[in-house]
Amino acid sequence: MKKAFTLIEILTYVAVLALIILTVSSFFLWTTRSNTKAKVMRETLDNSRRAMEMMNYEIREARSIYTPTTTSTQISLETSKNLPTGELTTYLDFFLCGAQLCLKREGQNPIAITLDSVEVKKLEFTQIATTSTSPSLQINLQIDYKNPNQRPEYQASVNTTSTVSLRFY
């Protein structure tokens, strides 16, 4: 008598194998999407932190602040450097250039502070203490990850707010 597999045994084997393959591939797909989401969130958060730290540092070290109104999307700062020949006064600006946050020092071209992979959705500088001995600003910044295909794993947004006062005033 010949021993062979029956049709039911083969179909059962194929069904179990398909189920295992489907489970493993779903796990790998989920892992890939989770890693992508974590990378996108980290990159957006890092851009937001770096931009906010840079603005806070420059504002703290500035001699004075020039803004057109009490709330603005651009800020100009008067800074100074101590050189052996004396003190040198320079100016720098923070502003939006397209969808990026830019820094422009006097006599230099603007430099993008944020990466191309993110876009600045909101930038506001608000003077909150103009009459005190130390002027203060509140900075509101919203940075989103660029997601032209609207895929859920590429959606990330970071809103940060900071208050900073001049040291030199």
What topology does this entry show?
Blueprint: H1 7-61, E1 64-66, E2 71-72, E3 75-83, E4 86-97, E5 100-105, E6 111-112, E7 118-129, E8 136-145, E9 157-165
Antiparallel strand pairs: 1-3, 2-7, 3-4, 4-5, 5-6, 7-8, 8-9
Task: Describe the protein in words.
With 169 residues, this protein is α+β, with helices and mostly antiparallel strands. The chain has one domain. It is built from one helix and nine strands. The chain has one helix at 7-61; strands at residues 64-66, 71-72, 75-83, 86-97, 100-105, 111-112, 118-129, 136-145, 157-165. The strands form two sheets. It has a five-stranded antiparallel beta sheet, with helices on one face. The chain has a four-stranded antiparallel beta sheet with strand order 2-7-8-9, with helices on one face. Strand 3 (75-83) and strand 4 form a beta hairpin. The radius of gyration is 27 Å and the shape is rod-shaped.
Task: Give me a quick take on this structure.
The protein is α+β, with helices and mostly antiparallel strands and 169 residues long. The chain contains one helix and nine strands; from the N terminus they run H-E-E-E-E-E-E-E-E-E.
Which class do the helix and strand fractions yield? alpha+beta
Strand content: 35-45%
Compute the average pLDDT: 88
Distance between the termini: 102 Å
Q: What kind of oligomer do you see?
A: single chain
Proportion of residues in helical segments: 25-40%
SSE run: HEEEEEEEEE
